[in-house]
Amino acid sequence: MSLDAKLERVVARYEELKSALAAPTDDPRAFAKLSKEYADLTPVVEAVTAFRKANAELKDLKGLMDEAGDAEMKAMAESEYFGLKERLPEIERQVQIMLLPKDAADEKSAILEVRAGTGGEEAALFAADLFGMYQRYAALHGWRFEIMELAETGIGGYKEAIANITGRGVFARLKFESGVHRVQRVPETEASGRIHTSAATVAVLPEAEEVDVKIDDKDLRIDVFRSSGPGGQSVNTTDSAVRITHLPTGLVVQQQDEKSQHKNKAKALKILRARLYEAERAKVDAARAASRRSQVGSGDRSERIRTYNFPQGRVSDHRINLTLYKIDKVLSGEALDEFVDSLIADDRAARLAELP
């Protein structure tokens, strides 16, 4: 489909929505759905209008250049014509970006999972550093960060940490964080000052609603048991911990942080729903990305995506070859957007290159 045809279809749909919203309705849910689509299309149509106006203006200036008898008028028309002609490709590119298919999960909140990888206690300490980085990053963006599970080690590390990050567009900004994060530093316990390399894995899953993933009760095995580890007296003396097994896939989720069995079950179901939703998305993404060389956005956690080198004070993202010499600001969450923005731009560029 040509760009003009795509633009025409967008404008036609916009006008269709405008008429539908003006008509009386007794269905508030349908009205809300149409309103959201109309709001999403408004900036796209504004960009299309600006693009068409620029093209029409270019045509007028060309005519003025060809017909102007006055040398000064001709020179002015030429100046405006070549200036607009130079800007037009960028205006067209912005329109194409806005026409790119949106990830349906981008506006969702997210489940963040951080786990210690290779490297023993040092890996667990690094997992805690990463979890703290995302917690501070969420605060900077005004998102709600709810800790759902923490499996701590004795000296401040995390074997596993899970959080629910709630806010508008959380998944869109965090989805490229999924992968293996590697750290190079001298552990505090290392007497010889030798640099160790260890790793942690990060998984960012879009939070799924019940309408996104239907889970049948018959597909679940729910076991309750006594919680272990630190907690209040009642945590350790009642069967409040919950383990849910999704029989068709074999996925197992366990929650024991709450004193209430009911709350632990609700949290476990939320995590299970997110993992099932992400598994389905991964299938679709794999099929869609089969012909792509770049793996940005695939959520593939089999390869390292970023290295945090403390002796050199640098953080390097290997997917986009971007290195920042401000490790403290990255880990404080302040400079993480520099990676996030670059990854989003790189993903857009790759998808634009695929357009016919």
Number of strands: 11
Q: Span between N and C termini?
A: 8 Å
- Tell me, rounded to a whole number, the average pLDDT: 82
Task: Specify the structural class.
Answer: alpha+beta
Tally the helices. 9
Q: Any low-confidence stretches, pLDDT <50, length ≥5? A: 230-235, 288-302
Helix content: 40-55%
Numbering strands along the chain, what is their spatial order in the largest sheet? 2-3-1-5-4-9-10-11
For this entry, what is the oligomeric state of its chains? single chain
Structure notes:
This protein is of the alpha+beta class. Helices cover 48% and strands 21% of the residues. It has 9 helices and 11 strands. An 8-stranded mixed β-sheet has the order 2-3-1-5-4-9-10-11. Strand 9 and strand 10 form a beta hairpin. Helix 1 crosses helix 2. The radius of gyration is 26 Å and the shape is flat. The N and C termini lie close together (8 Å). About 6% of the residues have low confidence.
Write the layout of secondary structure elements.
Elements: H1 3-22, H2 28-67, H3 71-99, E1 110-116, H4 120-140, E2 144-152, E3 158-166, H5 170-174, E4 179-185, E5 196-206, E6 220-225, H6 233-237, E7 241-246, E8 251-255, H7 261-288, E9 304-309, E10 314-317, E11 322-324, H8 327-331, H9 336-354
Helix pairs in contact: 1-2, 2-3
Sum this structure up briefly.
The chain is an alpha+beta fold. The protein has nine helices and eleven strands. Helix content is 48%, strand content 21%.
Please describe the structure with a list of short key phrases separated by commas or semicolons.
356 residues, 9 helices, 21% strand, eight-stranded mixed beta sheet, three-stranded antiparallel beta sheet, alpha+beta
